Amino acid sequence: MPAASPDRTGGPAPAEGAVPDVFDPRLYAAGIPHDRYRLLRDRHPVAWQDEPEVLGWPAGPGFWAVTRHADVVRVLRDHTAYSSWAGATQIRDPDPADLPFLRRTMLNQDPPGHGRLRRTVSRAFTPARVDAFADRVRERARTLLAGARAKAEDGACDVVPAVTDEYALLNLTDLLGIPAADRGLLLDWTVRVIGYQDPEDAPEPLRGPDGTPLNPRSPALLGEMFAYARELAGHKRRRPGGDVMTALAEASLEPAELEMFFFLLTVAGNDTVRSAAPGALLALAGAPDAYRRLASGAVPADRAVEELLRVHPPVLSFRRTAAADTELAGRTIRAGDKVVVFHASANHDERVFADPGRLLLDRSPNPHVSFGDGPHVCLGAHFARLQLRVLLEEWRAAMPAPELAGPPRRLVSNFINGMARLPLRVSGPPR
Fold it and tell me: Residue 253: what pLDDT?
């Protein structure tokens, strides 16, 4: 058997014919495992993955990894065969006692219940309401970029804490109508829920009597967030504004539904841009010719956003559960099996995207699945696109071409494609 060649993540590529592991969250700290994904797409498009104990988190029963674009879209669109309600949407199985609680959020529901909740929040999260914040988003981008230049050391700055974390957080809190004094709470909650697999990014997890880490999405650990949501909703009813929380507070929602909407908007709404924005800058730093086309205006920023989302999707994976025995790409899936789609793999499927490893900012068509597909397509995609477009426009107007000033650090996670550190050159004229 020939020796395995190294893959682009720095680890050894699996031997030819072997099914590569794409579960271990530590893989993703070295970069998206594109060589492993390609091997799966070519030879094992629906492949069984073991789910061993990792970093103290308990082992699971395993799951089917879905890596081709067509199969990913099929799973995301077919809620009858592939359920969000049956086992929620994370690879890790929830505690059975927590499952009824998790099913309160529309993320973990199937139609028709999902549709009722989505219609309710859609009326609060309208494009018109989002667009009303565009000028504030632009001013914030300018302020944060100027601040990064001012605090640069030797011409460089870590743009994650200096720009992108604050940009995503403050834009979201403006949209939700959260008082300035409370905004740090949202970042703390996001890190606790999203970054829990990363020992450097997340706080030490709380543990149960047997020493097993408690799921950060369990109701026992979300009480503080829910209490705040109730308090904020009461405040908005007394003093309404033009923000999303006012609209939710005035909607016909049960208290538990309002709490879960707040949880979903706080965590998903923050982390989508918090992950995508530094990922876009990292991609541009690695493709100076592409950036020059963006900076010159040869490629519109909104078109560039789509390609940057393709190469750096904010979410790496989502889980469904087979509702009945079915077949996918020639594999028999049993009722109750976990079926996990891998967005970054679908976005690099050679069957759909020509030269997928190349950053082509004017790529068209560009049917990436970075915001999902089907009934659960990202509700905040319009707001995320607006923020990313504005950040690119303001960067090219005020900043030098993105250039690494040190090694970046990615999040240890098989769920969120996050950046924990991204030092870039920020001094010098725009170019």
Answer: 85
